Amino acid sequence: MPAAAPAVRPGDPYPLGAHVREDGVGFAVRSATARAVWLVLMRPADGAVLREIRFPDAFRVGDVFAMTVPGLDQALFHYGYRVAPWPGGDGRSPVILDPYAAELAGAGPWGTRPAYRSAVPDRSFDWGEDRPPRVPPGELVIYELHVRGFTRHPGSGVAEPGTYAGLREKIPYLRRLGVTCVELLPVQEFDETDNTFTSPATGAPLPNYWGYNTVGFFAPKSAYAADTGPGGPGAELKELVKSLHAAGIEIILDVVFNHTAEGDHRGPLLSFRALDEAAHYLLGPDGSYRNLTATGNTVNANHPATRAFILDCLRHWVTEYHVDGFRFDMAAILTRGPDGAPMDDPPLLADIARDPVLAGRRLIAEATDAAGAYQVGTFPHHGRFGEWNMRYRDGIRRFLAGRPGSAVELAARVAGSPDLYPGRPTSVSVNYITCHDGFTLADLTTYERRRNEANGEGGTDGVADEDSWNCGHEGPTDDPEIRALRARQARTAFLLLLTSRGIPMFPAGDEFGRSQGGNNNAYSQDSPTSWLDWSLPHTDRGRDLFRFVRRCLAFRRATPALHRQEHAGVRAAPGADGGAAPLTVLFTDDEPHRPGAVFVAAHNGGGTRTVRAPAAPPGTRWHLFADTAAPPGRDAHRPGEEPACPGPLFTLAAHSAIALVARPHPQPHPHPHPHQEDATP
What is the model's pTM? Predict the structure, then answer.
């Protein structure tokens, strides 16, 4: 760094952020409220201030302060800004971050209090022949995971546990399982130490483990990298994306544009509050923060400046990291206007839907927020947004628990939810029974009461009623009948999920029975509670469920009837919801005359029930793919190896389901694809 103050020259007002130029580094930052802005250059080793340079007034273009500093080497400085005035006074603000910073330094190892500084990374990366897999909608299966929790457990067997590199080592497992897309919980830089609660057992601070408190929207989470040096996190994440694509697996990022880590007026001053508070946050008439997210602040997503920021951010992750799409957390916030009320036609969503850079990328909305907005089926989609289908989640859970009226609801859900998405393809419905937020599938069959005491909130956080059923005993048990029923419930849940119309999604570990001990809000549990225990697939119960799920995924992949974008023909059996009568739902391919037609029957009552399958298409006969009441190993068959059924009548055991497929008669000798062979992870 030269000792003399460098001569500066006007910069480019777009793109915003810091960018290496031929003769130095250009800086551009937007603020409609600042009268003056200073660039603060810092020493990378410790953040000590090296120099502060005021942006000359003549270098301001509209609301953008832009200048180029010649002679700067990106490896020899970190940077930030000061502005005046700012919400704390008329003088210069503390040093703030560049909201467009492509890397944030100063975070340290996981669990240490960060001293964030903006950095200019080396963006060179050899993508080779990388191309998006572009998995057809009917073949998409989303696997939701937490980067750290996926391989942090000592039993993961990877060289760099809890990192992007560790996840990359598990790609062969993802291929064996048969998923075609991973959805990562937030990987934009966040502060995991930002949690006010402490462990009731030890008194130690609890982390913000999930990461829904973004600090740097353009920067990858550095503590998820094995290489935390300059440029390391970004390069490691890109290697992960490139390797996933080479394996035919897409990657979707869970992004949080509804609130930021700044909180309300009591929170940390990071960037937006100092640069233009009213443009970036919803404020009440008295200037207080509207808290529609239960986090302290709410992003003013439809303000022109914030809309531009969000679009620039999404384009950055597509162009710089080659990601295949986004899941928008609490997306109903993105429909709200300056007064906090939902808008009929929010401009942000139209901009995202029509953006040419984002064309072809998957857009998935969580169509609710913490202030009561519930837009499942009514989210402003512009023909581009799919939805996390919470009605599907609730319908399946209620059916599995034997709730009155649940068969009729289930019939609509497994058909692709035509009542919610009329005239739209079934792929707009992302079907799930469990996700990161709530009970795992194993806990859904084990607990009716949440066990969240470890979160330090008196056990009152999380959803009080998850429509779960403990199968007759609360918590773990050695009773063989209850254990068998719980295993059957898990198989039935997966069979329904993976034969429903729409895009199936499930969280990592459900495929081998991962439990969180009844904690249904494990956002603060960086512990074995949240980590995947890789010994489970090697237990009898874990191995049996893994084999069943793997065969269901192979069956879905090999069965075009399950890929169709039209809603299926489904009905609840006559009298299914009549008081104490067993609850049964029957559904089939909507073109049952075709070979490969599928028929599924599910029964959630006690005792047995006899069902009659419809006539198989001409030249075919029904073959039994799955019976969730059958012994392990015979509960599901490899595609092409399903045994022929002797007749049209079938007996369903209590709380079970069967799936049939129409195969030509006589059945040709099967030639299973190697990908369908069973293997323990």
Answer: 0.95
Do the domains 569-676 and 144-561 match in fold? no
Which residues, at least 6 apart from 106, have a Cβ–Cβ distance to it below 8 Å?
A: 47, 78, 114, 115, 116, 117
Pick the CATH number of 9-96 from 2.30.42.10, 3.40.50.970, 2.60.40.10, 2.40.128.270: 2.60.40.10
Predicted confidence band of residue 665 (pLDDT cuts 50, 70, 90): confident
Q: Is 602 helix (H, G, I), strand (E, B) or coil?
A: strand
Handedness of CA 199, 202, 205, 210 (dihedral sign): negative
Place of tokens 């544009």: 257
> How many CB atoms are closer than 10 A to CB 356?
7
Give 578's Cβ-side CA count (13 Å radius).
5
pLDDT tens digits, 28-67:
999 999 999 999 999 999 999 999 999 999 999 999 999 9
Strand partners, 253: 184, 326
Secondary structure letter of residue 49 according to DSSP: E
Q: Which residues are known catalytic residues?
A: 329, 366
Cβ-Cβ contacts under 8 Å for 87 (sequence gap 6 or more): 265, 269, 273, 274, 277
600/399 Cα distance (integer angstroms) = 15
Condensed to tens digits (0 to 9), the pLDDT of residues 557-612 reads: 999 989 989 887 776 654 445 433 445 666 666 555 566 889 999 998 888 988 88
What sign has the CA pseudo-torsion 192, 443, 556, 167? positive
Asked if the 144-561 domain carries CATH number 3.20.20.80, the reply is yes
* C-alpha gyration radius of the chain: 27
φ/ψ bin of 203: left (φ > 0), alpha (ψ from -120 to 50), beta (otherwise): left
For residue 314, which of 349, 366, 338 has the smallest C-alpha distance?
Answer: 349
What is 569-676's CATH superfamily?
Golgi alpha-mannosidase II (2.60.40.1180)
What residues form DSSP beta bridges with 82? 38
Domain boundaries, the chain: 9-96, 144-561, 569-676
